[in-house]
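DM between two lab members

TW: hey, do you still have the XK-related protein entry open?
JB: yeah, one sec
JB: this one, 280 aa:
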Amino acid sequence: MRGAFPELCLVLLAAERGAWFCTIIYYLVHGQLGWFGLTISCVVPGYVVQLLSIRWFKADGHPPSCWLLVLHLLQLGLWKRDSCRYWDVLRMVAKTGGSARGGEVLMQDGDVSVLHLLEALLQTLPHLVLQAYIVVAVDPAGFVPGVSAGLCLLSLSWALVSYSLFSCLLKPGHLCPPAAAILCLLLWRMGMLGTRVLALALFARLYSFRVFAVAGIHWLLMSFWLVAQQIDIVAQPCCWRLFSCLVGAVYIFCYVNVQPGPSKHRVTVFYAVSTRIFSI
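TW: and the structure you got?
JB:
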C-alpha cells in the first residue's frame, strides 16, 4: 500500500489544483470579482511551504537552480518532491532486488507528508472554508465551487492521514496498517472536517460575523491548553507560544497530534471542549 502513496498524492494534488483553477475561471466569467479575489488570495499562504521546500532541497545537497526556483514560484515544489521520491523508491527497489531500504524511504515519506500537511493547512483549508460558505450561503447551485470544496476536503483529509501514518511508522515496531484501516481513517477525517466546515458555514449564513466569536473562543481555549502542555517541538519560549497559537487555530477544524506519547487523553479533552463549543 505504501508504494501507492506517491501516485495518490500526485493525483489528489492535480485534481485539487485543477478544480481550484476552474473555480477561479468560474468566478471571473460570471463577474463575481469579490469571490475571485478571495479565491486568489488563498494561494498566497502556500508560498511559505514553497520557501520551506527550497530550504530543504538546499539542506539535502541540491542547490536551488533556476528551474527549481521557477517550479516553486509556480507552487509546483511538492510535485517535484513527490516525483523525485517516487523515482528514488523505484531505484532503491531495483538496486536491492525488490526491497527498498526502509529508513531512507521513511524519511522521504516524512519530508513529503509534513510539507503536504503544512500546505493543506495553510492553503487548502482556507479555500475549503471559503468555497463551502459560497455554496451554502451564496450560490447553492454552484457546481464548480462545490466540486472544488469536495476535492479540497479529500486532499486535506489525505494530508492528515499521511501525517498520522508517518508519525505511527516512526515508533519502533509499528508497521504500515492495511488498506482497509487507512480507508476508515480517511473517511473519519473527511467526516470530522466536513461536519465542522459545514457547521461554520451554516452558522455564518445565519449569524454573519458572530461566527468569528465562536471560532475565537475555540481558538483561545485550544491555544491556552497547548501552552499549558509546554510542547517541546520548538525550543524558544516565544516561538513555542506562537506555535501553540497557530496549532490552536488549526484545532478549530481538526486535531493534529504534535506531542509524542499516547494521545487518547488529549483527544478526549479536544472533542469534549469542541463538542461543547459547537453545540452552543
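TW: got it. Confidence is low (pLDDT under 50) at residues 97-101. Residues 50 and 76 are 8 Å apart (CA to CA).
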